[in-house]
Design goal:
CATH class of the largest domain: Alpha Beta
Strand order of the largest sheet: 7-6-3-4-5-8
CATH superfamily of the largest domain: Ribonuclease H-like superfamily/Ribonuclease H
CATH topology of the largest domain: Nucleotidyltransferase, domain 5
Distance between the termini: 39 Å
Largest sheet: 6 strands, mixed
Oligomer: single chain
Order of helices and strands: HHHEEHHHHHHHHHEEEHEHHEHHHHE
Number of strands: 8
Radius of gyration: 28 Å
Helix content: 40-55%
CATH architecture of the largest domain: 2-Layer Sandwich
Length: about 375
């Protein structure tokens, strides 16, 4: 029996999270030798450069060798071999605003020193170098005037988004020449002091019991990859009924995504001011904007202790369930197809899926028991996107 790659990664992940080999063999009906081969192939190694499996490294090595062959073919072609130094310098002049000089010199087999000499020989007021530098100074000044809080990294990112290849060093030098800098240090210090105070509040203390619906909501985000692009699901779960009261999809785990999800939950449920909202210490939840929104409605915030995911266990359990039963079992060709299937799954999760912690009842039957009298068990929630 052939298994999907995603299923193999799930099994390996569960093993490293504490699941025993014996349990996997008995419940999944997988031979011991097969499990060990998966562990060897899909175990993720984490370094300062990122996380990768042996298979990912093997594929990357194949791509590198293929690219090296392509470069060798191009550099050994007759057209390339006949290029003079002056012609190579001219080609680099046309491309250097999009790529760094050392990479271009390596591509054209030209020593970097030779090209730098070419630049300095032509560094007059009317040279391309001087014209580009003057143009960049004007653009950086205008960006800073429009966004005074922008520092080196954000100004560089803005220029790159406009199609300009520029290094952080160049941005820093031009900003120094202009006498400008990002003014964010005071704001960061204030936010850190406020966030540090808020992080000390853990009102639940792993007591996951509520007397009724909309007394305690748990919030969190998780990431899902669709066609090698990462998207984030933000959701809020009612602690009493385990119902998902709102969820949204975004391109980043931002404060805006968390706030829009909360606004949707408030609109759907209209909770009383006694509501407690419990989350982890993520920047989206400890931000000033989020605290202000929660205070506006009279709600109270509660936070997990740093590095203690069990302080938000029901929410972690929900994401584990949705990944195991839905995300890892299907392949999605686009964000639209994922969004449609996600709506169906959350509808099933809220209205039909029974849970042991709810005495084998569905969340909606606990959350809205009056619906059982009228026979209106179905309660669909539309997923929206803040992408």
């Amino acid at each position: 029996m052939r298994h999907k790659e995603s299923y193999k990664e799930i099994i390996v992940g569960e093993y490293y999270q504490g699941r025993s080999i014996k349990d996997i063999i008995e419940k999944e009906k997988i031979p011991r030798s097969t499990i060990y081969s998966w562990l060897k192939k899909y175990h993720r190694h984490t370094t300062k450069y990122g996380t990768a499996t042996p298979k990912m490294l093997q594929d990357a090595n194949k791509r590198i060798k293929k690219l090296e062959k392509i470069i060798e073919i191009l550099q050994n072609s007759e057209t390339f071999s006949n290029l003079t130094t002056a012609q190579k310098e001219k080609e680099i002049d046309l491309l250097y605003k999009h790529y760094d000089i050392r990479t271009l010199c390596a591509a054209f087999l030209l020593p970097p020193g030779t090209y730098y000499n070419h630049i300095f020989r032509n560094k007059g007021d009317k040279s391309k170098f001087a014209i580009r530098r003057s143009n960049l100074r004007d653009r950086i000044y205008k960006l800073h005037q429009k966004n005074p809080d922008y520092g080196i990294r954000r100004i560089k990112a803005s220029l790159v988004n406009e199609g300009e290849f520029i290094s952080s060093t160049m941005v820093s030098r031009l900003m120094q020449e202009l006498g400008i800098s990002g003014d964010t240090s005071l704001i960061k210090k204030q936010n850190k002091r406020l966030a540090a105070y808020e992080r000390r509040l853990n009102l639940l203390k792993q007591d996951f019991k509520a007397k009724g619906p909309n007394e305690v909501w748990l919030g969190d985000m998780t990431v899902v990859a669709i066609n090698n692009v990462h998207y984030y699901i933000s959701a809020y779960l009612d602690l009493y009924s385990r119902k998902i009261v709102a969820y949204r999809i975004g391109r980043s785990p931002s404060t805006h995504l968390a706030m829009e999800t909360l606004r949707m939950a408030i609109k759907n449920e209209n909770p009383a001011a006694c509501l407690i909202i419990h989350t982890d210490n993520g920047s989206a939840y400890v931000s000033y904007s989020m605290r202000r929104l929660i205070r506006h409605y009279g709600f109270t915030q509660s936070f997990s202790r740093p590095g203690k995911p069990h302080d938000n266990a029901p929410m972690e359990s929900f994401y584990n369930t949705i990944k195991r039963e839905f995300i890892y079992r299907k392949e999605f060709k686009s964000l639209d197809s994922f969004r449609i299937e996600l709506v169906k799954y959350i509808d099933y999760y809220n209205n039909e899926r029974i849970q042991k912690s709810l005495s084998n009842r569905s969340p909606i039957s606990i959350h809205s028991p009056l619906n059982l009298v009228t026979g209106k068990i179905q309660q669909k929630t539309e997923v929206s996107s803040v992408i």
